[in-house]
Automatic annotation (TrEMBL):
Lineage: Bacteria, Pseudomonadati, Verrucomicrobiota, Opitutia, Puniceicoccales
A GO BP annotation: base-excision repair
Catalytic activity as recorded in UniProt: 2'-deoxyribonucleotide-(2'-deoxyribose 5'-phosphate)-2'-deoxyribonucleotide-DNA = a 3'-end 2'-deoxyribonucleotide-(2,3-dehydro-2,3-deoxyribose 5'-phosphate)-DNA + a 5'-end 5'-phospho-2'-deoxyribonucleoside-DNA + H(+)
GO molecular function, one term: damaged DNA binding
EC number, as in UniProt: 4.2.99.18
Protein's UniProt name: DNA-(apurinic or apyrimidinic site) lyase
Alphabetical list of InterPro entries matching this protein: DNA_glycosylase, HhH-GPD_domain, HhH_base_excis_C, OGG_N, Oxidative_DNA_repair_enzyme
Highest taxon, organism lineage: Bacteria
DNA sequence: GCACAGGTAGATT
DNA sequence: AATCTACCTGTG
């Protein structure tokens, strides 16, 4: 009981300061080598987890702690590779298979990267060389949609804080004392007011409308995932609050469609500055990206985004 | 006080 | 069809 109270106190204090949650180490298993782990450079490991693809990873001490679906996992990189640990009692085989799906181990990102036009594109070459092993995550579809519905004109730390607040308020508790993101039914039941209390502002109305629709149409997102990319995109855009950019984020980070190329303010600036496309708007830039980067344009986008965040390319 | 931040939808030109 | 503008909230 005393332990529980202490944890809650710590959590609320940290929430106010918008710092990552910290959980009781005793609740976690020993570190285990992730034998199937993909190769990551240090930079790519951090950027893949905490670079704006997903909003539920936090640096804790010498590791990253993340959540998706009903999973809580800690990952740490050392000279032997990637190590993981999970709440005591979690089935190691289930964790392994959850990791395999989340990290899209069935996708050959090294091969997709090599097929990008880096040989003739020095900007892309710089970005790829700075983040060797960068991957596109394959996140649960609904969670990806929720995260990016929260994202408009918000910075990553704020999006993470909102996701955490909504999870604590509406989501199921997890074995380590943290919370999963809520289902659409849970969000719809909570309503717009509670979403606004999580500091969602004008996004709350869209998210509530989307949650009401999706909870009344179970299977709709899975049906969408079965469609070709352009048809899936059209359906996603029909949801309240989802435009081209958020739809492309969902296609890329939640459905593994590497051709999807989200253009946000960062990517717009990168393309304009690095490729001399002054005055180009979003639609022509999409055509440029498709033609120049090819079928894995979305992977190129992630390299460029990472490199721009690091101040390596497209500087003023 | 004010501009700006991983956008979208609706109005106006 | 292209270009505003409102919409919440936090940060600098």
């Amino acid at each position: 009981m005393a332990l529980h109270d202490q944890g809650c106190q710590r959590r609320s204090a940290r929430q106010k300061a918008e710092l990552p949650l910290e959980h009781v180490d005793l609740a976690f298993s020993d570190w285990q080598l992730w034998a199937d782990a993909p190769h990551f450079s240090r930079t790519a490991f951090a950027e893949t987890l905490d670079g704006g693809q997903a909003f539920r990873w936090n640096r804790i001490k010498n590791c990253f702690e993340g959540r998706w679906a009903k999973n809580t996992v800690r990952l740490r990189q050392d000279n032997s590779g990637i190590l993981w640990c999970a709440p005591t009692g979690d089935n190691p085989e289930a964790v392994g298979s959850a990791l395999a799906q989340y990290f899209a181990l069935d996708t050959d990102f090294a091969g997709q990267t090599d097929a990008l036009p880096w040989r003739s594109d020095p900007v892309l070459k710089t970005a790829i060389e700075a983040f060797p092993g960068l991957r596109i995550l394959r996140q649960p579809l609904g969670e990806t949609l929720f995260g990016f519905l929260c994202s408009s004109t918000k910075q990553i730390p704020q999006i993470k804080a909102i996701c955490e607040a909504v999870a604590i308020d509406m989501g199921d508790p997890l074995p380590d004392g943290s919370h999963a993101l809520p289902s659409w039914a849970q969000i719809a039941a909570a309503g717009e007011t509670r979403l606004r209390e999580a500091k969602l502002g004008y996004r709350a109305r869209y998210i509530n409308q989307t949650a009401v629709f999706l909870s009344q149409n179970p299977g709709w997102l899975d049906e969408t995932e079965a469609l070709p990319t352009s048809e899936a995109r059209q359906r996603l855009i029909s949801l309240p609050g989802v435009g081209r950019k958020i739809a492309d984020c969902v296609l890329l980070f939640g459905m593994g469609r590497l051709e999807a190329f989200p253009i946000d303010t960062w990517v717009q600036k990168i393309l304009v500055r690095a490729y001399g496309l002054e005055g180009w708007k979003s639609d022509p830039l999409l055509d440029f990206a498709r033609v120049h980067f090819g079928p894995s344009a979305g992977l190129a986008q992630q390299y460029l985004f990472a490199a721009a965040r690091a101040g390596l390319i497209a500087k003023k």
